[in-house]
Automatic annotation (TrEMBL):
Keywords annotated in UniProt: NAD, Nucleotide-binding, Oxidoreductase
Residues binding NAD(+), per UniProt: T202, N236
InterPro entries: Aminoacid_DH-like_N_sf (IPR046346), Glu/Leu/Phe/Val/Trp_DH (IPR006095), Glu/Leu/Phe/Val/Trp_DH_C (IPR006096), Glu/Leu/Phe/Val/Trp_DH_dimer (IPR006097), Glu/Leu/Phe/Val_DH_AS (IPR033524), Glu_DH (IPR014362), NAD(P)-bd_dom_sf (IPR036291), NAD_bind_Glu_DH (IPR033922)
Active site (record annotation): K110 (proton donor)
Region annotation (Disordered) ranges: 129-154
Biased composition (Basic and acidic residues): 129-149
Any GO BP annotation: L-glutamate catabolic process
Family note: Belongs to the Glu/Leu/Phe/Val dehydrogenases family.
Binding site for substrate: K74, K98, S365
Protein name: Glutamate dehydrogenase
PANTHER family, per the entry: GLUTAMATE DEHYDROGENASE, GLUTAMATE DEHYDROGENASE 1, MITOCHONDRIAL
Domain of life: Bacteria
Positions of the record's site feature: Important for catalysis: D152
Length: 436
């Protein structure tokens, strides 16, 4: 199952990479470089369980190729039973694309541990985190200038805090800090060195990019001033998309989580919805709308914008022809297969690709790292949450405008244009590395 999924994911990635490479006329050697990896690490970790017995876990980390020799790699650390090198490879490539599109001088990475964290006690989670830090540090593949992990599926700010503590513990005898830059997504507050705004960043960023794209002059639709929205997923990304929609007074017609959703053709009462969900963690008996399945939500006809903000590969050749939205904003990573992309292109549906739409999280993580490392960079804000989010929006406005300009220039989809923009930034750096 994991293998089939990773092969499909890699297929998606390679189809997209080849299209962008052709547009930019990249040489064969560079295309091969862009399909390769700087580091593929895997190792067993032995950890003492609460019952005193040792248990072995499989950990891995993959770095995609990067032209930035003195800058770290960056990407999530995932704890999930299907974590493996093959699954993480395409994820690390997509991280690079997202980072480069945002103009951040780092390389992509992804990794994690094959485990269901819910089966571990807090103490076991801490010891597993420490074993993973020790193993990576011994191989010199972790550090503020080497590789900077972040939370992903199954990990959180507590685990990131343990990473930072363990790394500092191992290094402070020999060197001076700043050790906080070894990881991002740390808790916020005195001494924790996290950054305010990280929680909201991805969802708010998705809405910001939607607004920028809707104001583009080449949009094939008349300006939609109050778009009707549907959001699949009500976790970190989905709930913040809805929160921003409430602030903008855009009607939200349907929302869902893994147990299904709720629909109201006149728009949901979002205040009631948030209050209900906070208390019940489900939409099951919410009285402000009708029950709807996730499959039905994806093909709603009376919406302008659909946000898949939960899972990968939910928009496929099986449902793409029935999607009713005019615009799709990819809150999740890889929610659309390349077969569905083709159908959307033929039908004139605009897909705002994940590497542009959901880059807010990694941009704010970059701010966190830069602050921790005392990096002077005019893009990095000094202030609190509002300053962080508007600095993030400034970067996203720029990359969205460049993506849209390339879509117009090359008469291609936003998906191709985003990748063309990202690769166009780094291709000269890869070439310059080999120029005598
Ligand atoms: P989350 O765990 O906070 O929320 C996931 C949501 O998806 C939950 O509401 C869950 O109920 C729902 N869900 C799970 N299985 C489902 C199913 N079968 N059908 C419908 N809904 C289902 O996760 P998140 O952080 O919101 O991330 C969502 C997506 O966005 C993932 O693809 C993630 O990789 C991507 N992403 C997240 C961030 C970030 O900053 N959190 C950044 C970039 C991309």
């Amino acid at each position: 199952m994991a293998r089939t999924h990773s092969v499909k994911h890699l297929d998606n990635i390679l189809v997209r990479l080849n299209k962008a490479g052709k547009i930019l006329n990249l040489p064969d050697w560079l295309m091969e470089t862009l399909c390769s990896f700087k580091l593929v690490w895997q190792s067993g970790l032995e950890v003492k369980m609460d019952d005193g017995k040792l248990r072995r876990f499989e950990a891995c980390r993959v770095w995609h190729r990067s032209p930035f020799v003195d800058q770290p790699h960056k990407g999530g650390d995932r704890w999930h039973p299907n974590v493996s090198v093959e699954v993480m490879k395409p994820h690390s490539m997509e991280m690079s694309w997202k980072i480069w599109l945002a103009g951040i001088e780092m390389g992509g990475a992804k990794g994690g541990i094959a485990v269901d964290p819910e089966t571990l006690s807090l103490g076991e989670q801490k010891r597993l985190t420490e074993a993973s830090v020790d193993e990576r540090d011994e191989r010199n593949i972790l550090g503020p200038r080497r590789d900077v992990p972040a939370p992903d599926v199954g990990t959180n700010s507590q685990i990131m805090h343990w990473v930072r503590q363990r790394y500092a513990h191992r290094h402070r005898v020999r060197e001076d800090g700043p050790f906080a830059g070894v990881v991002t997504g740390k808790p916020v507050g005195y001494g924790f060195d996290g950054i305010e705004g990280r929680t909201e960043a991805t969802g708010f960023g998705v809405m910001h990019v939607l607004d920028r794209v809707m104001s583009e002059h080449w949009m094939p639709y008349p300006r939609i001033s109050t778009p009707r929205l549907a959001v699949m997923g009500f976790g970190n990304v989905g709930s913040h998309i809805v929160q921003r929609a409430a602030q903008r007074q855009y009607p939200v017609i349907a929302v869902s989580d893994k147990n299904g959703g709720v629909y109201a053709s006149g728009g949901l009462d979002l205040q009631q919805l948030f209050a209900y969900y906070k208390e019940n963690r489900t939409f099951s008996d919410f009285k402000g709308g009708d029950r709807i399945t996730n499959d039905e939500l994806l093909v709603l006809q009376d919406i302008d914008v659909l946000f898949p903000a939960a899972l990968e590969h939910v928009l496929t050749k099986a449902n793409a022809a029935r999607v009713g939205a005019k615009i799709i904003g990819e809150g999740a990573n890889s929610p659309t297969t390349f077969e569905a992309d083709k159908i959307f292109e033929d039908r004139g549906i605009i897909v705002i690709p994940d590497i542009c739409a959901n880059a807010g999280g990694v941009i704010v993580s970059f701010f966190e790292w830069a602050r921790n490392m005392n990096v002077r960079d005019e893009r990095v804000p000094c202030g609190e949450k509002d300053a962080v989010l508007s600095a993030m929006e400034a970067i996203m406005s720029k990359s969205t405008a460049e993506m849209c300009a390339n879509a117009e220039k090359y008469k291609t989809s936003l998906r191709n244009a985003a990748l063309v923009t990202a690769l166009g930034r780094v291709a000269p750096l890869f070439v310059a590395k080999h120029t005598a």
